[in-house]
Every structure is written in structure tokens, then in C-alpha cells.
Amino acid sequence: MHTEPAGDGKTAVKPSQPDPGWKTKIKPGPQGILVAGSTRKGEEATILEIARLTGLTPVIVPRHESRISEVVHTAEKAGFKPDLWTDNPAGSSCLIVNIRGILASLYGLADIAFVGGTLVPVGGHNIIEPLAHGIPLIVGPKHHHFANVVERASKDNICRVFSTVDQGTAAVEYLLNIHSEMRRKPAFFYPDMFLLKMKALLKTMGIAV
Q: Do the beta carbons of residue 164 and residue 141 sit within 8 Å?
């Protein structure tokens, strides 16, 4: 029997909702918020550029806290004025999360998510966490720990795979457009197929929604 690796062992755990007070820390861009979780060295610059081009406020959660200073420098080099989570900013336009244990819930504030360890040869971290919040996501090509999940989610237009900034920008715009279009349609005649597909996908993985 085939068993797909679960990345960090939290695949089947439904995350809690974000703390309502967290919203004050972030000023959404014209297109909302991009939460990039468990990012690795070499991924942040790409995600920051995608966020800039698509009008999203980046919230970066590095996989390792030892890289916080490096990530702050990368954000500054990209033209952002980053704030640290622990400084309790109000309305940040670029937030670097320097504490552990909140990512799974933080995805709930996103309009779109990026899961790290997929643009570099790691294999991907927990892709289920943003999906469990009903958040569309983009991932890099190196997602073999969650290959089956990505394949199914991509078929249902919940996920897009990208390798370059241009591809990532197009993927974000595509997913945001689909989600926005479905939200504008009358629910009686056009049920929200995005969320229906999301729930169906999660149920196949044993996650109650």
C-alpha cells in the first residue's frame, strides 16, 4: 500500500483560527495578504517580488529563526520596510514572523499562501495547513513530500506550481481571480465550487471540515 510522506507529521491536524488581534499587525495590500510559511534560504526574494508585483502584503515565516536577520535584509533589499512580529507593529506592509508555533493558524489570515521548501530541494512542508483554512496556494516544483496533494489540488484549481517570478505572479493572479469570481456569483445559482472542492479534497485525507 502506498503511503505519502506527511512532511512534518501534522498533515491530519486541522489548525485553529487566527487570533482576531493579529489583523491589526498587517495592512493588506490591494489584493490582500500573502502568507509564506516555512521559507528556506533562496525562496524569500522570489516571494517578495511576487507579492510586490501582485499587490499583496507579504507575511514571511522562515523555517528557521536563526535566519531572521537575513530575511529582514532580503526584504529591505527588495524595497520593503519589514517589521518583526514581536515588535507588535500596527498595519505593517511587510511582516517577518520571528516566533514559532503560530504558522498553522496564521495561514487563516491569507488571501493566498506559499508553502516553503518547494523552490529549493527540500520536498515541501505542510501544504495541508493553508488548504484546511480554505486558502489557495502556490508551491514550487520541489514538492515531492506532498506530490499527490498538489496534483489533486491543482486539478481543482486550488493550487498552482511555479518556478519563476513570472510564473508565480501569473499563478497568484489566476487563483485570486477564480476565487474572486466565485465570491461575486449568486450563491443560489452558483455555489462556491472553490470551497466545495477544497472540502472534498480535505475529506479524502481524513480531515473534518
A: no
